[in-house]
From TrEMBL, chains A, B:
Belongs to the HIBADH-related family. Residues 163-282 form the 3-hydroxyisobutyrate dehydrogenase-like NAD-binding domain. It comes from Teichococcus vastitatis. The lineage of its organism: Bacteria, Pseudomonadati, Pseudomonadota, Alphaproteobacteria, Acetobacterales. NCBIfam families: tartro_sem_red. This is 2-hydroxy-3-oxopropionate reductase.
Length: 295, 295
């Protein structure tokens, strides 16, 4: 199939490579940053309009809401090259409410739109084991499914309304951020009370407190290994998105607000590029020692 | 072995029964609430002093810190009956700092003290699969280990200082409470944004957001099955304990404080006897519909 792929960042370059492996012709817009290997593997076209014009399905994997808006509707953007019957898939993690507006404008051109953000990070992108959360019409989902299956494993159509995928991704980032904070409060408390946080983590692993976060991020907090992983400043962005959407929807998210503030404190202290498990440093700054030290 | 067991509540009656099954002679203080079956199975003695006098190891399984203080040091209490070389094991979930004081007083009588709170609930107590978190001297831990093994599975000596077991239990209740709240915020947000919370939970189960809480309590929030389980008012008590200890230790626990307030809101609304997954109702009261309804 002829696929356009826009956004060859850390995630996107891995995902696009899987589409090549699956036998698709993948077109990308020209950029100075393209490697010579990428210039050989991909079909390089002058801009996003040309990519849309020469492909059936256009996939976006971009950093934030304004980037998606620019690539879709800006000068030399995707929208200018679309024909009726094409499909646009945005796999970026962006605003659910803006997504709905983008989809409407694309639909007016007779094209389908899917929002299909992912989780699983660089490792998931590399191993083609991403979780993919999709919003949009069932027919469009089925059309895209072989592509999703080339890039991910746990693929769910959350709802037929555009934005449902982005909503699910926001929910994911809420749970992940708040669970990291929960583990951090528990380990700082235990450590400050004189208990060995490694033994506490071990004892908690058997029971109701068990989570992937306690296992992975709890260990990082104890070992003091804060190499990303997923950077604090990106998670801060995601929780800003959650709070902005929540405000629009009229729903209170007290602990999302609190964790967003703690991430802000980390950024203020120069820790924005640490892994999000580094959130524990903000709580430690409210106590008097680290979780790996005796009290 | 001759064991004293004080506190035949929902948990204690199951735990004491496992000690009988393991072949121990189990003495209990007389109470009007003892069933005729219990009067046959256990050796009934007039009071806690008599129980301490006629046994080697005395186990306590009581609701709260003042109950333990009363049974240990009140009139006709355990302390009055202790001889040098005996062991007192408190399996209740109580204050880590008060625990240290109780242990010191017991130690002055030439007796060892272990704090050994449990998690796993009534099911864990019934199936002898409790998680047991222990603080106290290694020798005392080894002496008690066969008894712990009759009642639980994941048994950890957290530290040789008394209170370490209680500290670990508090850490457990922090993680469990805050993870429930995280899942509740995510599902309320998703539902309010128009997504199906059941599909969101399913999509999140594969990835980094996975936890025992998302699996069990997330499902209860969606199914609206709030039969305990573990009651909100008990979890509220545990987080009060966490905040009180944190204050004494000089450590800030912002989200523990927030969740404790949400549990208080539930109690104020007459929901104190719901399962702790019912915390979601406090967040729903800050939005305009339940997680199982379309927006």
């Amino acid at each position: 199939m002829k696929i356009g792929f826009i956004g060859l960042g850390i995630m996107g370059r891995r995902m696009a490579a899987h589409l090549l492996t699956a036998g698709h012709e993948v077109s990308v817009p020209d950029r100075p940053s393209l490697t010579s290997e990428q210039r050989t593997s991909f079909k390089v076209l002058p801009d996003a309009t040309a990519v849309a014009r020469e492909t059936e399905i256009v996939i976006l994997m971009l950093p934030d809401t304004p980037d998606v808006e620019q690539v879709l509707f800006g000068a030399n953007g995707v929208a200018d090259g679309l024909r009726e019957g094409q499909l646009v898939i945005d796999m970026s993690s962006i605003s659910p409410t803006e997504t709905r507006k983008f989809a409407e404008t694309i639909n007016q051109k007779g094209c389908d739109y899917l929002d299909a953000p992912v989780s699983g990070g660089e490792v998931g992108a590399k191993q083609a084991s991403l979780t993919i959360m999709v919003g949009g019409p069932t027919a469009a989902f089925e059309r895209a499914l072989p592509l999703f299956q080339a890039m991910g494993k746990n693929i769910t159509l959350i709802g037929e309304t555009n934005g449902a995928g982005q909503t699910c991704k926001v929910a994911n980032q809420i749970v992940v951020g708040l669970t990291i904070e929960a583990v951090a409060e528990a380990l700082v408390f235990a450590s400050k009370a004189g208990a060995d946080p490694a033994k506490v983590r071990q004892a908690l692993m058997g029971g109701l407190a068990t989570s992937r976060i306690l296992e992975l991020h709890g260990d990082r907090m104890i070992q003091r290994t804060f190499d990303p992983g997923f950077r604090i400043k990106l998670h801060q962005k995601d929780l800003n998105l959650a709070l902005q959407s929540a405000r629009e929807l009229g729903v209170a998210l007290p602990n999302t607000a609190s964790v967003q503030q703690l991430f802000s404190a980390c950024v203020a202290n120069g820790h924005g590029n640490l892994d999000h498990s580094g959130l524990v440093t903000a709580l430690e700054a409210m106590a008097s020692h680290q979780v790996d030290q005796a009290p």
